[in-house]
Amino acid sequence: MLVLHYTGMQSGAAALARLREAEARVSSHYLVEEDGTVFRLVPEDRRAWHAGISHWRGCIGLNDRSIGIEIVNPGHEWGYRPFPALQMAAVCDLCLEIIARHPIAPWNIVGHSDVAPDRKQDPGELFDWEGLAANGVGFWPEAVPPAPADAQAATLLAAIGYRMDLPLPLLLTAFQRRWRPARVDGLADAECLARLAAVAARIPAIRPDRP
């Protein structure tokens, strides 16, 4: 898996220092600065402590099976702002390099808020997932037809891979940050249901032996 984060700190220097502190017990494989500089912090074949308590498509403890990229941004606590073009280009190139080395399926390229929706909001609704997909990182449903009449938000969220022991509005909010960033309200309106169905249609059924 590939998990994308924002740093949620006031500067890239502060984030880099924290990621290098053994006492902090937090780390990632990469850090991408706003000017596009990439720091390689942990070898890809080593576990980094970036996902925390996490779940995706039936798997837990995702530090054991994922590569983590921290992307410098103050986050919702310190003045969330759009990700600069140079930074997004560097993130895209880095992701393409990683998925060329590892068999990571498009539906297993996720945000921290996807795998820990009760704890995290990153990389958030300003992150350009659609642009990444256009360049071969993950996917984005281009056509979003109306949802089937019997569409159920909980069933579709489960099919995509979200953990289902959390309140539905919280899970919908996480989905919207990723897939419907223009309106993040935790409500399963017609547009949200349509997007849920369109995303679920692109993802194979969950197998018990792999995400």
TrEMBL record:
Coiled coil: none annotated. InterPro entries: Amidase/PGRP_sf, Amidase_domain, NAMLAA_amidase_2, PGBD-like_sf, PGBDSf. Keywords: Cell wall biogenesis/degradation, Hydrolase. Pfam families: Amidase_2. One of its GO terms (molecular function) is N-acetylmuramoyl-L-alanine amidase activity. One of its GO terms (cellular component) is outer membrane. GO terms for biological process: cell wall organization; peptidoglycan catabolic process; peptidoglycan turnover. Its EC number is 3.5.1.28. Residues 1-124 form the N-acetylmuramoyl-L-alanine amidase domain. Signal peptide: none annotated. SMART domains: Ami_2. The keyword Cell wall biogenesis/degradation applies. It catalyses: Hydrolyzes the link between N-acetylmuramoyl residues and L-amino acid residues in certain cell-wall glycopeptides. It is an enzyme of class 3 (hydrolase). Belongs to the N-acetylmuramoyl-L-alanine amidase 2 family. This is N-acetylmuramoyl-L-alanine amidase. The lineage of its organism: Bacteria, Pseudomonadati, Pseudomonadota, Alphaproteobacteria, Acetobacterales.
